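The following record pairs a protein chain with its ligand, heme C.
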Amino acid sequence: MTGSRSSIMRRSGLLYGALAFVMTLLFQNCDGGFTYDPQSGLLSSAGTSGVGGTQFRITTFNSAGLVVPEGQSFQGGIEYRIVASGQNVSSAAIQWQLLNNTGACMLRPGSAPETRFVQCTASGRVSIQSTAIWDDGSTTVLVSERTTSELIVDACGASSSNRVVFRIPNGTGASAWNSTTSPVVVYVGQTLRVCNDDATAHQMRTLGSPCASQPASMARGAFYDCSIANTMNVNGATAVYNGIYDQIAGVNAAFYVRPFDGQALYADTTKTSNGQSCASCHNAFTNSAKRGSSFTGIKNAIMNNTGNMGIYNGRITDDEIRAIAFSLNQ
Ligand code: HEC
């Protein structure tokens, strides 16, 4: 590769200038040639030139692969990919550096020299400098400057089999937290974690069921864990708990939570066509032969009418089967 030969020449300095000139003539004869600059003493390939610069640019992408335009901030905790491109970039040496880094940003190498990843965690600024050193020794320097924002640690976390996370949406203010048509579905035995994503403070008020009222108001970012202990105070008509609303905003700021009690459903004889329940055929809940069963396992047994279990078909909902499966796995 011509780049390595020319870099040897570069280091050797003037002493080898004349030799380089001779070599130029030799190489020109055999492989199409090099150009020799008598002023700088540099030798470089004439054909596949490793010199660029005019089209050299750096582009920033987010994790979804979309371009993050210059001037747009870096969000805390998000990793961005920076790519240098342009004519002959692959034959140039690219150097990366962070300058004026008050955003606590870190630079991570990519798979190729022209790629870097940057991630910041503080509110501040950062300048990403990319220097291309071309085969002729010339350099092109580009700087991309960004403001950076702080990494907000989300204490709330995600839902899991034992925990249902509900987030009070930003902008909720004094209105309802959710709607009657899409209540939060919970199973007895789960924890309902209510997180405040809103700019204003909130406080969950109950009639003592499924859990005690939240003792104090919570600011944005805080949460309240409510254990779904039972289905007391569930409204017969709407199937949601009565009396849950925002203590601060008042009764119109309602919160609709719909519980299912898997253990009760396991023994419920109204869900079959012949007055039986799971307990009739698989022992009482506490020593059930079907402990550890999955939603799919139970659902398939019903749909396939295994052991006449199809007596449930059309009378039990998926939510109810999920609640039973949840209980059988506690
Ligand atoms: C009429 C009796 C009867 C009722 C009621 C019944 N089952 Fe079954 N069930 C059976 C029989 C019989 C089998 C097949 C033998 C076995 O796997 O135990 C079976 C199989 C199953 C299986 C295993 C399916 C498989 O493919 O391995 C699961 C899980 C199950 N039942 C759960 C339940 C649950 C949960 C309920 C209540 C919603 C229920 N059953 C109600 C009789 C019943």
